[in-house]
Write a structure and sequence with these properties.
Blueprint (H helix, E strand, L loop, with lengths): L28 E7 L2 E6 L4 E4 L10 H25 L5 E6 L13 E6 L6 H18 L1 H8 L11
Antiparallel strand pairs: 1-2, 2-3, 4-5
Helix pairs in contact: 1-2
Length: 160
């Protein structure tokens, strides 16, 4: 339930996310090989993303997609709070970086930087909004929460 006149959940100051249909099933996701080490990722809604090694040109590497998923998730999680306070046309950029640790072929650290103009806010309002945004991302960013918790991965190989 929202607090009167704020659009925020009463005890948490976290924006109440829009209701989502309870019966929505996760979309089927898959990749198809398009060439040597190049793939096209697809979902049932018709979206596509090209992936491969950096030397393949206009593609995303899987690591870049991981980082973009994190940045996008953080931005989407913060969006309600930011647009509520700064307007529906607020400009937000989430930059993400992290070096590959080659011996283990993984990213040991990812760093995000959310860029948004807060110059029109007084210091108290700015600090409150920053707390709300951090809390919203911590509570609602599935990608970040999954990375922090260290999801297990199971690979099945079939001859179908």
């Amino acid at each position: 339930m929202e607090s009167p006149n704020t659009g925020l959940a009463p005890e948490t100051d976290v924006p109440v996310p829009p209701a989502s249909p309870a019966a929505v099933q996760p979309s089927r996701l898959w990749v198809e090989r398009t060439g040597t080490r190049t793939y096209t990722g697809r979902n049932e809604r018709g979206a596509e993303v090209l992936m491969g090694p950096a030397e393949a040109g206009a593609v995303f590497t899987p690591g870049e997609l991981l980082k973009i998923a994190l940045a996008g998730c953080s931005g989407m999680s913060a969006d309600t709070a930011l647009s509520h306070r700064l307007g529906d046309d607020v400009e937000v950029t989430v930059e993400v970086s992290g070096d590959n640790y080659k011996p283990e072929d993984r990213y040991p650290e990812l760093h995000e930087r959310m860029v948004v103009d807060l110059s029109g806010l007084d210091e108290a309002t700015k600090e409150r909004l920053l707390r709300v945004v951090h809390r919203a991302v911590e509570q609602h960013c599935t990608v970040g929460n999954t990375l922090k918790a260290g999801a297990t991965v199971d690979l099945e190989i079939t001859g179908e």
